[in-house]
Amino acid sequence: MSRFLTVGAAQMGPVQRSHTRRDVVERMIVHLREARRMGCDLVVFPELTLTTFFPRWWMTDQAEIDSFFEKEMPSNETAPLFTEAKRLGLGFSVGYAELVNEGGRVRRFNTAILVGPDGRIASKYRKVHLPGHAEHEPQRPFQHLEKRYFEVGNLGFPVVKAFGGNMGMCVCNDRRWPETYRVMGLQNVEMVMLGYNTPLHNAPSPDHDEHSWFHNQLSMQAGAYQNGTWVIGVAKGGTEEGVPSLADSQIVSPSGKVVARAGSDRDELIVHRCDLDAGKSYTSTTFDFERHRRPDVYRLIVERRGARPPAG
Ligand code: CDT
Prior knowledge:
Blueprint: E1 4-11, H1 21-37, E2 42-44, H2 62-66, H3 79-88, E3 91-102, E4 105-115, E5 121-126, H4 146-149, E6 159-162, E7 165-171, H5 178-185, E8 191-196, H6 212-227, E9 230-235, E10 238-240, E11 243-245, E12 250-252, E13 258-261, E14 268-275, H7 280-283, H8 289-292, H9 299-303
Parallel strand pairs: 1-2, 2-3, 7-8, 8-9
Antiparallel strand pairs: 1-14, 3-4, 4-5, 6-7, 9-12, 10-11, 12-13
Helix pairs in contact: 1-3, 5-6
The site of 4-methylsulfanyl-2-ureido-butyric acid (CDT) has 11 residues, from loops.
């Protein structure tokens, strides 16, 4: 029996600080309706979709910081998204800033959820690779304070059975790390959904700026091919609060080829009918992990965090 999943990558243009969650949810619902017309089963939204990318600002007032976080999901403001998706028979994934009372204290994560067509949360992921810095660096034209506002995710990289396949998620900077995909590859992942907010300027390495498009595509193509999985990469792009950000949302097949790609830096839906069995010819041959992996030789990967030169 063939297993096809028609997926919409719902790129978002900028979300300014003046935009309310209701404004954003309205735009997301436009995406859902178009996705329905185009025969989608599943719609993937970006990282921190519901607000502007607030880690660009140094803030000390906790109430102000927390105004960017979701205390419940769905909330009054996000419920219409869930209701409309369910009415249309669509699943979706979405990234948001999560504030939760866990282990007797308030915790904050950069989170993505997968919601089934029944409106229930089928999986949750909390971002592991938090980029940027934790202290104010006023010499930068804008901040990247993810290390200050979020904790490192504590849910691992879960892969769940949903939508007829094995589904995983990661968030933005995670896509640059081979470990992200491999941990999911070892759970037979067939589709990785990921959203990103990637400023086109990175203050510590401005020489990388011109390669932003290439590095985005390179990382997702490598992750897809080396693990025989679909990768759905979805941007919140365009100029947000004066900061130009990468768009270039794309759907990458398990061959590593880009099969659909956004042409704008605004709200734009790109769609592909994904064969969930397409990865099998990779995971049963070149990347048959059971036959070819040599974990004993890879011990350093889990035993050592930072690189060190050889002795002598
Ligand atoms: N949101 C996010 O993770 N952005 C990073 C920017 C890296 S530079 C600090 C990314 O990897 O795209």
